[in-house]
Structure prediction request, 282 residues.
Amino acid sequence: MEITLLGTGAAEGWPGLFCNCSICAHARATGGKNIRSRASAIIDGVLKVDLPPDLHMQAVHNSLNLRDLRYLLVTHSHDDHLCPTELQYMGQWFTTEAVPQTLQIIGPSPALNRIRREVDITKLPICLTTAMPDHLLNFCDYRITAIEAVHDPSQLCLNYIIKAKDGTQILYASDTGWYTETTWQFLERQEFDAVIAECTKGPTPTEYSGHLDMFQVIEMKMRLLRANSITTHTPFVATHFSHMGGYTHEQLEAALAQHGIVTAYDGYSFSVKPSTVLATAR
Ligand SMILES: [Zn+2]
Ligand SMILES: [Zn+2]
Ligand SMILES: [Zn+2]
Prediction:
């Protein structure tokens, strides 16, 4: 499984569009890994997680032709994760040749309803499949299990367990706060070859429970280690950072590296294979 994190920022991007804090000033002055577009990932060039408003520049920067996409997993309907009108450019008025295959769009019903409201799905080569917590969806190339995120009480938000045909299995955990005990028990029965977890609040815990801070991400890793769901060698990658946390990319990287956690940046790529360590340990 080849994974690229196309965007690694929270809703307002990094620097924040209208923000003047020292972290945003540093980002504007230095650029590079301190520039974060809205969170999104692509797997094996065919499966995309979320459809943020930065889609166009993410595709350009990563030399992607989205005609190759087969699957789009949508976590929830917030604007930084779902910009349905981008889908209209699959239509006949915007391509010289018809898109050759149907794009399977998988997501919670509030997100799919938003797509139905904002684009005419009857004129596009897309197929919508409703995902529900703890239900397994089987596609040709991937098995997808949605789990319930703790993010927005007004709508169902999902995170995903993605399993490839070769057995590689990863957890994509964004957006979410700390999972419920039921979800934790489900996760503790799984094995993961990589975990991608949001770290929106960085080193600054707040009362808001719909996102994770750095200390919760570290505890998440420890809990999965204790359950043998991962090993110390399993790639554990943090994403969806906000400048409001108060650390630059370099400061986040230094803090998280002490716990074996990678601080992702836009364009960060890694490959994952089924873990022989786990296979032999059990
Ligand atoms: Zn978000
Ligand atoms: Zn800022
Ligand atoms: Zn959100």
Observations:
- The radius of gyration is 18 Å.
